[in-house]
């Protein structure tokens, strides 16, 4: 028997074994669900050895460990990721098909783990995969939300939210660690006795660990994602139970579990909620204790912590980790206060993700002090020392009755990074200008990236195969090798194969949309896709206005040679963000009218796919021709969706914002559709009186489109439905939709013209693929390892 034959048989047996003995199912009666679990167990077995070896190797080398603290990990499905990274795809598929099952159906049976809102959480997930691929010893720390991000559907065009129940099914990937628990205190008093400060909290919860292995490319290394779940210290009150009060008997447990019950459905606006701060402290404090516990297994001198530990705070949500570490080092371990602060600063780093003022976290000092009285004192003391050392400082962590988490994170960090060149530059001149003047070396840039394993190799197997056929293996872990594709764009035969890959991906999407939505898309049209959280700064309303204007133009000039277009939207709005929800409803209303119009049939279609998540992104991105990255310049920190699209051969229409700037530089301005005001121009435009009214009055297309909304064309019988949007567009228009409309329209017509030349388009798309290798999150993580963490790989490179 050939070697791969043996492996195949082994794997088949492993699945059958798990089906029978782990799941207790008779193969004759097993459903897709059972087979999927059995397959997952068989895959998991092959991760565990690697996982343990990696952990042992880290202890042996006494290597510096990286701790990535993030409130969100938008990991999506893991089965395929793991199979691909372990290079089991062929044998697993053969085994599953051998049992008479459909391979994709089995993979898609897994729930999508949506433990995040959007880009920030997805970045954390890509980073975990790259850390494992690069063999950097690392742990991800977060919260094991019972309910991830809500499930979105549409009811009469409006967003409807239902709880996500991903843990209703067994989660094969996680290992519960009942022995790894920490008791965390909240509230209470701070007392001073014998010159020692003592925090005496008045209530307690426990954090219990659940570990998920994260395996890197080719299974060479595996790290741990450790998520904390809330548990009561005394889960059950027998006295109350015996007294007949059954509900009260379990009350403590119910309250403790609330902490890890739901993911806050906000992505850039913070609600000053007590539970949110509780969640932040809960996971940060549990992680800090775990980090110290692990350090002390092999070390006794806590002053060496910065040599062995690098902590990365993904945004300010884990910012209380820093005063917590100071508190433990000083109050509990007796190190001098200043030394405790220095040690903490040697370990902690902070990634900033937004410049939007409403999204910079700050807490009312009353609430903060009530929940974390000792931490408030520690923050005050550090901030005071800081203010004395730098009397000209204006921005401090405390003041106006607030605790400002961005400032706190900055002053507690060794390095602070932005996530694209433009964003980092703006950080230095806006939010952190004051700090940057005092500590000019602290801010560094690490432009975001995405893992090519998931976002090219797995989600786009046809393109992956073409790339491998063309330049050989190896590019998956060395993405800049995609540059070797560039010469092939001059080869007509190759370019034709490239174009056929996109056409086949589009045909797949058409089939799926027909099945799921009952809508027939024109596969020959340009697929124009905007998928991301709904936010005014991301400007989905600019896109839908253009759709309205285009529809009107097509109706006015029916015999013109229009490039057929399918406009696809996807994205969720925060439940309390009413303007964003109006945008969703408007898009759905416009879609209903346009799609029903015989006059533009086959030329223009608008589709809003519900419940955007990682799985939907994996389905849409390989089929996109055009990527909409149209945020108001200066507002999108980086974007990572933009990178996924370019890597999969979609051309970008975009502003000079976030990483769009770097994408355009790399793929070449001739392969990118640029429009709009720059960040500086946008700032200046806002100061022009009546800028929106002028823009509307000066552009007949824009005014006709707005007029149609105002007149009720898309809300028959209820012309006021979008009065809020209309007023915003014509008056304040902070996000400059009206000001950018005319140039957006121009760029879109350039897109139409370019798409009419299919060969030219394919060439541009292929160059986007060939020149996007730099956007691998492997490159980003190497940057963090070098510039921020001073951490090393334990794999032979
Ligand atoms: C990549 C990704 C994002 C981030 O998209 P942006 O366009 O950068 O905002 C959000 N959600 C999901 C599911 C993603 O895969």
From TrEMBL:
Coiled-coil ranges (or none): none
Cytoplasm: is it a keyword of this entry? yes
- Required co-factors: pyridoxal 5'-phosphate
Record's keyword annotation contains Methyltransferase: no
Family (UniProt): Belongs to the glycogen phosphorylase family.
Principal location listed in the UniProt entry: cytoplasm
Q: What role is this protein assigned? A: Phosphorylase is an important allosteric enzyme in carbohydrate metabolism. Enzymes from different sources differ in their regulatory mechanisms and in their natural substrates. However, all known phosphorylases share catalytic and structural properties. Allosteric enzyme that catalyzes the rate-limiting step in glycogen catabolism, the phosphorolytic cleavage of glycogen to produce glucose-1-phosphate, and plays a central role in maintaining cellular and organismal glucose homeostasis.
Q: Which UniProt keywords apply?
A: Allosteric enzyme, Carbohydrate metabolism, Cytoplasm, Glycosyltransferase, Pyridoxal phosphate, Transferase
Write out the GO cellular component annotations: cytoplasm
The cellular location(s) given in this protein's UniProt record come to:
Cytoplasm
Q: What NCBIfam families does the record tag this protein with?
A: P_ylase (TIGR02093)
- PANTHER family per record: GLYCOGEN PHOSPHORYLASE, GLYCOGEN PHOSPHORYLASE, LIVER FORM
**Alphabetized Gene3D superfamilies for the sequence:** Glycogen Phosphorylase B
- Listed GO biological process terms: glycogen catabolic process
Task: Tell me where in this chain the PTM N6-(pyridoxal phosphate)lysine is found.
Answer: 644
Output this protein's name. Answer: Alpha-1,4 glucan phosphorylase
| Species for this entry | Paracoccus aminovorans
Q: Which superkingdom heads the taxonomic lineage of this protein's source?
A: Bacteria
Endpoints of the signal sequence: none
Reactions that this protein is recorded to catalyse = [(1->4)-alpha-D-glucosyl](n) + phosphate = [(1->4)-alpha-D-glucosyl](n-1) + alpha-D-glucose 1-phosphate
- A GO term for molecular function: pyridoxal phosphate binding
EC number(s) from the headed UniProt entry: 2.4.1.1
């Amino acid at each position: 028997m050939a070697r791969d034959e043996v492996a195949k048989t082994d794997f088949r047996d492993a699945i059958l074994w798990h089906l029978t003995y782990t799941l207790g199912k008779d193969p004759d009666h097993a459903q897709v669900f059972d087979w999927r679990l059995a397959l997952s167990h068989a895959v998991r077995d092959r991760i565990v050895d690697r996982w343990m070896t990696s952990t042992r190797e880290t202890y042996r080398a006494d290597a510096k460990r990286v701790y990535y603290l993030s409130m969100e990990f938008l990991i999506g499905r893991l089965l395929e990721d793991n199979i691909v990274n372990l290079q089991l795809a062929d044998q697993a598929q053969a085994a599953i098909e051998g049992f008479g099952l459909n391979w994709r159906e089995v993979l898609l049976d897994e729930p999508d783990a949506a433990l995040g809102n959007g880009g920030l959480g997805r970045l954390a997930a890509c980073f975990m995969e790259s850390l494992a691929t690069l063999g950097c010893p690392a742990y991800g720390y977060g919260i094991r939300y019972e309910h991830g991000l809500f499930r979105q559907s549409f009811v009469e065009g409006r967003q409807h939210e239902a709880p996500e129940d991903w843990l209703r099914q067994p989660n094969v990937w996680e290992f519960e660690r009942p022995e790894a628990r920490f008791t965390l205190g909240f509230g209470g008093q701070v007392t001073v006795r014998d010159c020692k400060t003592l925090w005496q909290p008045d209530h307690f919860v426990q954090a219990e660990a659940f570990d998920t292995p994260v395996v890197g490319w080719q299974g060479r290394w595996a790290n741990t994602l450790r998520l904390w779940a809330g548990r009561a210290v005394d889960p059950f009150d027998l006295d109350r139970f015996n007294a007949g009060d059954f509900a009260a008997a379990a009350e403590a447990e119910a309250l403790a579990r609330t902490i890890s019950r739901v993911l806050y459905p906000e992505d850039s606006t913070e609600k000053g909620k007590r539970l949110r701060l509780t969640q932040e402290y809960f996971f940060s404090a549990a992680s800090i204790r775990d980090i110290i516990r692990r350090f002390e297994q092999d070390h006794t001198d806590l002053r060496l912590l910065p040599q062995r530990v690098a902590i990365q705070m993904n945004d300010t949500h884990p910012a209380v980790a820093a005063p917590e570490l100071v508190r433990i080092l000083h109050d509990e371990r007796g190190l001098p206060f200043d030394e405790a602060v220095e040690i903490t600063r040697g370990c902690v780093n902070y990634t900033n993700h937004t410049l939007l003022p409403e999204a910079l976290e700050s807490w009312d000092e009353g609430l903060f002090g009530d929940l974390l009285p000792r931490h408030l004192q520690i923050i005050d003391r550090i901030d005071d020392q800081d203010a004395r050392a730098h009397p000209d400082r204006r921005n401090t962590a405390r003041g106006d009755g607030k605790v400002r988490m961005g400032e706190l994170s900055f002053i507690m960090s060794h390095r602070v990074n932005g996530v694209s060149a433009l964003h980092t530059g703006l950080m230095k001149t806006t939010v952190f200008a004051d700090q940057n003047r005092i500590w000019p070396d602290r801010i560094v840039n690490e432009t975001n990236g995405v893992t090519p394993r998931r976002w090219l190799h797995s989600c786009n197997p046809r393109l992956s195969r073409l790339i491998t056929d063309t330049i050989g293996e190896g590019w998956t872990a060395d993405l800049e090798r995609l540059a070797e594709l560039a010469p092939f764009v001059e080869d007509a035969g190759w370019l034709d194969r490239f174009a056929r890959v996109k056409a086949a991906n589009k045909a797949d999407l058409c089939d799926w949309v027909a099945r799921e939505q009952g809508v027939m898309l024109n596969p020959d049209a340009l697929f124009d896709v905007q998928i991301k959280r709904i936010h005014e700064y991301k400007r989905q309303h600019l896109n839908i206005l253009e759709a309205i204007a285009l529809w009107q133009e097509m109706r006015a000039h029916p015999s013109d040679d229009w490039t057929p277009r399918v406009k696809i939207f996807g994205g969720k709005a925060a439940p309390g963000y009413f303007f964003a929800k109006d945008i969703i409803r408007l898009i759905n209303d416009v879609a209903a009218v346009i799609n029903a119009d015989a006059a533009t049939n086959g030329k223009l279609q608008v589709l809003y796919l519900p419940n955007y998540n990682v799985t939907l992104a994996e389905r849409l991105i390989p089929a996109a021709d055009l990527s909409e990255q149209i945020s108001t310049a200066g507002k999108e920190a980086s974007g990572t969706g933009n990178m996924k699209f370019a890597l999969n051969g979609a051309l970008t229409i975009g502003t000079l914002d976030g990483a769009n700037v770097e994408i355009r530089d790399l793929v070449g301005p001739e392969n990118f559709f640029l429009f709009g005001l720059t960040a500086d121009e946008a700032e200046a435009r806002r100061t022009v009186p009546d800028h929106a009214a002028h823009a509307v009055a000066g552009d007949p297309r824009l005014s006709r489109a707005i007029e149609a909304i105002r007149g009720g064309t898309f809300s028959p019988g209820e012309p006021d439905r979008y009065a809020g949007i209309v007023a915003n567009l014509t008056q304040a228009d902070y996000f400059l939709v009206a000001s950018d409309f005319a140039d957006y329209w121009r760029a879109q017509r350039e897109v139409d013209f370019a798409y009419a030349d299919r060969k030219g388009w394919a060439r541009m798309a292929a160059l986007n693929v060939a020149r996007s290798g730099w956007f691998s999150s492997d490159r980003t993580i190497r940057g963090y390892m070098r510039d921020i963490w001073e951490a090393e790989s334990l794999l032979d490179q």
